[in-house]
Amino acid sequence: MRESAIRQIRDPTVSAGSGASADRWLEVGQGAFVVSRDPYLVLTATLGSCVAVIFYDAGARIGGMTHIFRCVDPGPAGGGAVVAEIEMLVNALMREGSPRSILQARVVGGAHILNRGRNVGGAMAHVALEYLQAERIDLVDHDVGGIRARRIAFNPVAGGLMVSYPGSMITVAEPSDLPARDDSTELF
């Protein structure tokens, strides 16, 4: 199962490719997740109330991201849908040889964008953080909540993550871990 450097999971509308063309950016859409060991690939997502859970295996130089948009059920199902999406990413990384016990995690997003009504994003972020604690997966960093959208870029081989808010840049991890882009590519 290691014949290609990138695995696009659950989103057949995105071309995964297997070549190592310089400087590729792949948007991870809502409900999708991607696992990659391609050194030229950057995974991106735009998050409002959605939550991205990102895993990285430094030894194997592989990582993945899931873009969760499922609401936490106020009934008996609770956060089961959120947990299921995280588990699919963890299982995909384990199939690629990354033991669950060495994965490093980051959680980003979960904003309360409209700042009224039920805080769906906050509930998803809470379930994700609880899952990591219950499973004893190392949480390296998190940037959740608030009322502003985020744009993220993750290098799954180097482990670098950049988080930006409209109008300002906040670096969660070293941006040098992300490959340079040419000026013709617009991130935002």
UniProtKB/TrEMBL annotation:
Xref: PANTHER family? CHEMORECEPTOR GLUTAMINE DEAMIDASE CHED 1-RELATED, CHEMORECEPTOR GLUTAMINE DEAMIDASE CHED-RELATED
Q: Which CDD domains match?
A: CheD
One Pfam family recorded for the sequence: CheD
Task: Tell me the keywords, alphabetical order.
Answer: Chemotaxis, Hydrolase, Receptor
Q: Which gene encodes it?
A: cheD
Q: Which Enzyme Commission number(s) are listed? A: 3.5.1.44
Task: Report the top EC class in one word.
Answer: hydrolase
Protein known as: Probable chemoreceptor glutamine deamidase CheD
Residue spans making up a coiled coil are none
Biological-process GO terms, alphabetical: chemotaxis
Lineage start: Bacteria, Pseudomonadati, Pseudomonadota, Alphaproteobacteria, Rhodobacterales
Chemical reaction(s) catalysed: L-glutaminyl-[protein] + H2O = L-glutamyl-[protein] + NH4(+)
Q: Function, please?
A: Probably deamidates glutamine residues to glutamate on methyl-accepting chemotaxis receptors (MCPs), playing an important role in chemotaxis.
Q: Which GO terms describe its molecular function?
A: protein-glutamine glutaminase activity
Where does this protein come from, organism-wise? Answer: Jannaschia donghaensis
Family, as annotated: Belongs to the CheD family.
Gene3D superfamilies linked to this entry: 3.30.1330.200
Q: Which SUPFAM superfamilies match?
A: CNF1/YfiH-like putative cysteine hydrolases
> Mind telling me which InterPro entries this protein's record contains?
CheD-like_sf, Chemorcpt_Glu_NH3ase_CheD, Cytotoxic_necrot_fac-like_cat
